[in-house]
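Field reference: sequence -> structure
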Amino acid sequence: MTVPTGRRERKKAATRQKIAETALRLFLERGYDAVGIRDVAAEADVAVTTLFSHFASKEALVFEQDENFEQRLTQAVTGREPHEPPVPALRREIHAMVRHCTAAGAAPIRRMIEESRALREYEDSMRLRHAEALATAIADDPGLSPTTTACRAIARFVIDAYALAREAADPDAAVDEIFQMIEAAWEVACPFPAPAGDGSGPR
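Structure field:
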C-alpha cells in the first residue's frame, strides 16, 4: 500500500486503521452479527458518519485490505519488468497475499467469514471485482494481445488461485501447482514473444 505523505493523508489513514482494528476486535470478541456499526464507532471514538466516510458497509470493515489487494494485483501487471510475462509477476504477488492471509492469527478471521452469509457474499463480489480490475490491466497492456475473454479467464484463474491456495495444507506448493496450469493457459491465450536474437526464430 502507498504510504500517505501529507499530514492530512496520514491522519485519515490512521483513523481508518483504528476503525478497522476496533471493528475486527469487537467482531471476534462478540461475534459479527452481535456488533453494530454504532458499536464500532463508539468504541473507536468516531462519529458514524466518519466511519462511513472510510467504509461503505459493515462487511467492508472485515476486508480492510480490499483496495490494497486489488491495487497489488493490477500493479503486478503494470509494474513488472518490460520483458517479463505477467504470469510470473502475478505468481509472486499471489504468493505474498496467501502468506499474509495464512499467517498466525488469521484462522479466527477466516472462520468468522465462513460462518457469516453476508461476509461470504461480500467476499464473492469482491473477488469478482478484483478479477475484472485485473482483466482490465492485462487487456490495457500494449505489449500483450489476448482476447477480452482470455483476459477475463486468466484473471479469474488468478483470483481462484488465491482462494484455493489459502485453504490448502501447503499454501505455497498449492500456488505453484495452480500457476503451472495458469502458465499453460496463458501460453495458449497469448504466447509471449521471445527476445530478439535468442535463436528461436524461423531458420
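Note: Confidence is low (pLDDT under 50) at residues 194-203.
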